[in-house]
Design brief:
Pfam families: Cyclophil_like. By secondary structure, the chain is mainly beta. Helices cover 7% and strands 38% of the residues. The protein has one domain: Cyclophilin (Beta Barrel). A nine-stranded antiparallel beta sheet has the order 3-9-1-2-8-6-7-5-4, covered by helices on one side. A hairpin with a 2-residue loop joins strand 1 and strand 2. The longest helix is centred in the first third of the chain and has 9 residues. The chain is globular and about 40 Å long. The mean pLDDT is 95.
Length: 125
């Protein structure tokens, strides 16, 4: 399951994993929202309300995760304000649902309040 994340001039491909959380997000697409930034993370509310599935306290650069307290999808491209040395730490545990294909650091250009769209990638794109 591959999706496009489009925000401002940035377009990224994301490969969703085989968690039931990722499947539920896939079923909900397309999603449009307003993006927020927090350190080297963007996040936005999505119309999915699920409990944690395999919660993780730290993530890797390029990870895409669902954050249950905010019903939000998060994309990590570097340290957050609560990260320790050499780690990427979400505000609280998240369920990793996918990974950015390519360079996630292009998200540094994204600003609070920009519109974001998450859409299915068709196989012939």
């Amino acid at each position: 399951m591959h999706v496009w994340l489009k925000v401002g001039n940035v377009k990224l491909e994301i490969e969703l994993n085989n968690t039931s959380t990722a499947q539920k997000i896939w079923e909900t697409l397309p999603i449009e929202a307003t993006v927020n930034t927090w350190g080297d993370e963007i996040y936005f509310s999505i119309p999915v309300k699920l409990e944690q599935e395999k919660p993780q306290e730290t993530v890797q650069e390029g990870d895409v995760a669902y954050w249950p307290p905010g019903h939000a999808l998060c994309v990590f491209f570097g340290p957050t304000p609560v990260s320790g040395p050499g780690e990427i730490r979400p505000y609280s545990p998240v369920t990793v649902v996918g990974k950015v294909i390519g360079e996630a650091k292009v998200l540094k250009a994204v600003r609070d309040g920009e519109k974001v769209r998450l859409d299915r990638k068709e196989t012939d794109e």
